[in-house]
Design brief:
Elements (H helix, E strand, L loop, with lengths): L14 E4 L1 H18 L5 E7 L3 H13 L5 E8 L14 E3 L9 E9 L3 H11 L5 E9 L12 E5 L5 E2 L15 E3 L4
Parallel strand pairs: 2-3, 2-5, 5-6, 6-7
Antiparallel strand pairs: 1-9, 3-4, 8-9
The protein binds inosinic acid and magnesium ion.
The site of magnesium ion has 5 residues, from strand 5.
Length: 187
């Protein structure tokens, strides 16, 4: 009887850019800063699907520990890269909020700001709905890649131009669960 030989692709070696511990420590600091800024206010956290889910959850824990407990969650999605790694110049909203944000304090929660096209689009759309305030919190920012200026008030880490995965971020929908922020040797 002949045996079938299965040749599997070797898993690429990932390089840790920011460890889980460093990431969580920084999110804790962000929570303290944001909690101080919004003390006494009701806040609507708006997570940008899907990449921001993990950061949104960890930031919420940090806000709670910093005694900001009066916040709600909602989510939006813009067209993603698909399986590629290039930014879309004309992102579209594919999943809108359930919440009416008129008169609300809105904090957009994003995983990473790259070209800035997605957030630029979202900010325009949301400002047209008359929130009382609108700010952005992102776990990561790649300033060298920016093509549109977006005002980001809370930034976890500024990073070099690597395509990163983990901490909710993906490549072809994979790697979101890696608690460290990592990149591939070639990228
Ligand atoms: P931007 O519109 O180019 O600023 O990028 C928008 C989105 O692309 C980000 O919110 C991420 O979801 C995704 N993205 C950008 N850079 C990376 C990366 O290095 N790894 C994974 N996703 C990324
Ligand atoms: Mg994102």
């Amino acid at each position: 009887m002949s045996e079938k030989v299965v040749v599997s692709e070797p898993e690429p070696e990932l390089i840790v850019l920011i460890s889980e511990a460093e990431k969580l420590a920084r999110i804790e600091e962000m929570g303290v800063e944001i909690a101080a800024d919004y003390q006494g206010k009701n806040v609507l956290l708006v997570g940008i699907l899907k990449g921001a889910v993990s950061f949104m959850s960890q930031l919420s824990d940090a806000l709670w520990k910093a005694e900001l407990t009066d916040f709600e969650w909602d989510f939006m999605a813009v067209t993603s890269y698909g399986s590629g790694t290039e930014s879309s110049r004309a992102p579209r909203i594919v999943n809108d909020l359930e919440t009416d944000i008129t008169g609300r304090h809105v904090l957009l929660v994003e995983d990473i700001v790259d070209s800035g096209f997605s957030l630029d689009k979202l900010v325009r759309v949301l400002l047209a709905r008359d929130p009382t305030s609108l700010e952005i919190a992102t776990l990561l920012s790649k300033p060298s890649r920016r093509e549109v200026a977006v005002e980001v008030k809370y930034i976890g880490f500024e990073i070099e131009n690597h395509f990163v995965v983990g901490a909710g971020m993906d490549k072809g929908q994979q790697y979101r669960g890696n608690p460290d922020i990592v990149y591939f040797p070639e990228g």
